[in-house]
Write a structure and sequence with these properties.
By secondary structure, this protein is α+β, with helices and mostly antiparallel strands. It contains five helices and twelve strands. 16% of the residues lie in helices and 44% in strands. The longest helix has 10 residues.
Length: 195
């Protein structure tokens, strides 16, 4: 379980493997110093298991299911990623409940300056949009964000300067793909009401 509050920007040191699975090695000294083999860590919103920790880096294995449903297959050495260690009991929940189970990949439609921040519109499939409500929560590349607006095919988020500085979202451009996770509480409500 995560909160969507990014704790560190990591850098991809190596991507080894192919369609049958890859090993991602991520340089993230702060997270590596506190992690143990077997710990869950969110990488761009994807919950992965640490399989090796050494010299300020953490290695993770991503299987075909993960590679097909997320943007991880498109990562290469040098890319930056959003990192969040798993929530520990007693820590504050600063964002919203994020599982690290990506629902879909969305595509950035536009990035528009708005005051000191930016407004980003993200085209998303119906499987994500049906859980989006204005002022509700959504996970974008592992970042807990508030839905600012909706249309028939997309949602908008308004990013403050701090978020732009401490996450990879500040580098997004139209056409970029992002991992999306709908609010799990909305999924449970739908399931219960649908019975």
């Amino acid at each position: 379980m995560f909160t969507g509050i990014i704790r560190e920007l990591g850098r991809i040191a190596a991507v080894d493997g192919g369609a049958a699975g890859v090993r991602l090695t991520v340089e993230a000294a702060g997270t590596a110093a506190q992690a143990a083999t077997g710990d869950s860590v969110s990488i761009d919103g994807v919950c992965l298991t640490a399989v090796r920790i050494a010299d300020g880096s953490i290695a993770f294995d991503a299987v075909p299911e993960t590679l097909e449903r997320t943007t991880l297959a498109r990562l290469s050495a040098g890319d930056h990623v959003n990192i969040e260690p798993a929530l520990r009991a007693g820590e504050p929940l600063g964002g919203h409940y994020v599982q690290g189970h990506v629902d879909a990949v969305g595509r950035v439609r536009s990035v528009e300056p708005e005051g000191e921040g930016v407004r980003i519109w993200i085209d998303a499939p119906d499987d994500v949009l049906r859980y989006c409500v204005e002022k509700g929560s959504v996970g974008v590349h592992g970042v807990s964000l508030t839905v600012a607006a909706l249309d028939g095919a997309a949602f908008a988020v308004a990013l403050i300067p701090h978020t732009l500085e401490v996450t990879t979202l500040g580098a997004l451009e139209p056409g970029d793909e992002v991992n999306l996770e709908a609010d799990v509480l909305a999924k449970y409500v739908e399931r219960l009401v649908g019975r």
